[in-house]
Amino acid sequence: MGGCFCIPGELSLSWGPGKETPSKDPTVSSEFIASSEDKERCCLPQNMNPDLTLSFSVKSRSQRCVNGLLQEAARRRLWALENEDQEVRALFQDLSARLVGIQSQRAQFLITFKTLEEIWKFSTYLNLGYVSACLEHLLFDHKYWLSCRLVEDTEIQVSVDEKHLETIYLGLLIQEGHFFCRAMCSVAPPAEKEGEYLTLCKKELISVKITDSESEWEGVSLVTGQRGLVPLSALEPLPLPFHQWFLKNYPGSCGLSRKRDWTGSYQIGRGKCKAWKEYEREEKDELSFHRGESIEIIGFVIPGLQWFIGKSTRSGEVGFVPTRNIDPESYSPMNKSSAFFSDEERCSLWVLGSDRKAECASFLHKLAHTDIASVYRLSGFESIQNLPNDPSASQPEGFKEARPGRAWEEHQAVGSRQSSSSEDSSPEEELLSAASDSYHLPEPDDLDDPELLVDLNTGQEEEEAENFAPMLAFLDHEGYADHFKSLYDFSFSFLTSSFYSFSEEDELVAYLEASRKWAKRGRRTWAHARLCFLLGRLSVRKVKLSQARVYFEEAMYILDGTFEDLSLVAALYTNLAAIYLRQRLRHRGSALLEKAGALLACLPDRESSTKNELDVVAYVLRQGIVTGSCPLEARACFLAIRLLLSLGRHEEVLPFAERLQLLSGHPPDLEATATVLSFLYDKKYLPHLTVASVQERGTQSGQGMSLPIWQVYLVLQNTTKLLGVPSSSWGE
Fold first, then answer.
1. Can you give the pLDDT at residue 573?
2. Whole domain around residue 315: which residue ranges?
3. pLDDT tens sequence across 331-373
4. CB count, 10 Å around CB of 110?
């Protein structure tokens, strides 16, 4: 079945001639009527060719031309594979494509796709450079790989007909029958058809379903949630398969892209900015400022988000600042397409390597294994036939290998020597020794967070209020303190690190509820807010979302727009926004959701505070798709990756990691994401892609690049899979 995907010349569309109907967008007022000629020109071909030609050429980087010798060698290798193409089929199966045929004379492959996922994955691998790397493994033998200079100077360039690939993609979309589109113009149905047809704004996202009609389909607005008919001539399918996959697998609402919002080529910014338009706050958590006023950016400002956190240099107040009211040219831009705000965030993706420690240790043991039984001294060339049982005994003093438990054994030995020598020491020496020990100051790492005794026998009478004083004093600190960190993380570590002497969680809840009442009576603002936050978190833990929402809303009301404890504010907004999304409270959560997204995305090194944070991250990513902001989309992908990894949901990370790798333009970002990809490809048993991802990481890093030992292990392990060599032969 064909479909019309034309882009109308006018700005709005009316469902028939006659009186103009006002639309939701006051800036759009013209009419458009799609003609039959427009529809015929926009229909997809009925009998399109489903096969795609993949061509390759072997080029020299230094000469910037085709390497004739290697091109001929690759062509001959391909000719040998024409009759026995099992290896080629296995390669393209890893690349999510189906091999149709091989044309060695033209250096071409003929491939096809049956599903949207196949064409999505293949186009991703093509753009990441993995297809070229995989063809190198297929077409070149060991003589090529043993020449480092030749490997560094050679690259395989692949090419496809992008228009034909897009045509196949659209055909598969039509075949599936349900996908997502963007409104290319405003749609204003007449009053008599208002309930039957959708009213749309320009660039609004719609979930469409194909019907038997040739001029209109069923649609659901992702902004309002309303359902109705939409004209085909006003729709354009989202061109990126990742966006189609994400919106289908992470359904939810999103906002609109307004004309006043700036995105374009602007990058993530920091430092200070200037207001080009004054703003009078509408909520207490917002910042008022005048035109030309300088505003300090707290964290970062990201194009595509409606808000960021700023501090007035004039008044010193902190609050949310609308991005459309500042000059995007006035702040300091970050590196292009950087999704990481600090080295700590970038290094957070390297935790995957810790899962490979045992395997790497076994791998190194096999490589280091030797059957040589003779060792020679260089001085006299004397053979030492009998080696000592303890290798450390033959090492020079000061170079002996440290072994597990050695430090403790030495400490015990020193202690015993001291105890034996103390028998001969004088009373004055013992007194001096005791005095020096008493003045020992603990190191910062030795200081534990304060712990509070939960007195379950405490009543609620006025005379027993002093029993709650330690709890209230601990929580009533103005602003952030390091010992509050355990209160805000999503692992609920405060249950074991901050409170004790309770056997069941309900006992702690009862004690916190009693403390909350005393904090409210004593007007202890910060203690009251933090107690409400803890009670809300414990309610979420028991899936009592409505009760948790009441606690979180009370905490926000108490804080009254203060930002002294930014970690608490971010955790509150994120938890409450996640509940609004879960309970589908569109009318109450739209403004809060935008601000929660700003706190989530704009603050660096912020720890997750709830497992439901993924719902808010998904909303931020949908906003990046709506506004077309690549920096916002990349930032949201990173947040999704980090959260999913911390939750142990590795199987869901791969699409976000691949998308982030495509959006990243900063070499350190590429290295960090490539590390995740190589781990995940190996986990999914995709040896071609595992080796290709590590190889591309080396190409992007340039000279002087060093691989972690676990990635070296991945390369050797997956190379043996490709060659059919058992890993047990490493030690031989």
1. 95
2. 269-333
3. 888 865 577 777 778 777 766 655 666 777 777 777 666 555 5
4. 14
Domain match, 197 and 299 both: no
Instruction: With respect to residue 515, please indicate whether it lies within any of the assigned structural domains.
Output: yes
101 strand-pairing partners? 110
Of 564, 589, 610, which marks where a domain is finished?
610
Name the pairing type of β-strands 272-274 and 383-384.
Answer: unpaired
> Same domain, yes or no, for 311 and 165?
no
Of 8, 451, 468, 365, nearest in space to 200 by CA: 8
Half-sphere exposure of 672 (CA within 13 A, CB side): 23
Six-digit token string for 138: 């297929």
Q: How many separate domains does the chain show?
A: 3
**Are 174 and 322 in a shared domain?**
no
pTM for the model: 0.80
Residue 184 · residue 83 · CB < 8 Å: no
Distance CA 639, CA 514 (A): 37
Tell me how far the alpha carbon of residue 390 is from its chain's centroid: 49
Bridge partners of residue 279, in order along the sequence: 289
Is the residue at 351 inside a domain?
A: no
| Residue 323 and residue 458 share a domain | no
User: What HEC string does 147-174 produce?
Assistant: CHHHHHHEEEEEECCHHHHHHHHHHHHH
Residue 513 falls inside a structural domain: yes
Looking at residue 552, its pLDDT comes to 96
Q: What pLDDT is recorded for position 704?
A: 44
Separation between Cα atoms, residue 718 and residue 680, nearest integer Å = 13
Report how far residue 109's alpha carbon sits from residue 103's, in angstroms, rounded to the nearest whole number: 6
* 3-state class (DSSP) for residue 56: strand
Q: What is the 3-state secondary structure (H, E, C) of 510-542?
A: HHHHHHHHHHHHCCCHHHHHHHHHHHHHHHHHC
Please state, in angstroms and rounded to a whole number, the distance separating the CA atoms of residues 287 and 493: 34
Alpha carbon distance 165, 50 (integer Å): 9
- Antiparallel, parallel or unpaired: β 186-188 and 12-14: parallel
Q: First vs last Cα of the chain: how many Å apart? A: 61
692 and 700 in contact (C-beta within 8 Å)? Answer: no
Strands 98-103, 65-66: parallel, antiparallel or unpaired by DSSP?
unpaired
Q: Which residues of 610-627 are buried (b: 16+ CB within 10 A; e: fewer)?
A: bebbbbbbbbbbbbbbbb
Residue 372 tokens, joined:
């040589």
Instruction: Give the residues of the chain that fall short of pLDDT 50.
Output: 1-43, 380-423, 425-447, 460, 463, 701-705, 731-732
Does residue 481 contact residue 447 with C-beta atoms inside 8 Å?
no
Query: What does the alpha-carbon distance between residue 479 and residue 612 come to, in Å, rounded to a whole number?
Result: 25
Would you say residue 555 lies in a domain?
yes
SS3 75: helix
- Contact indicator for 632, 303 with CB cutoff of 8 Å: yes
We report the CATH number of the domain holding residue 293 as 2.30.30.40
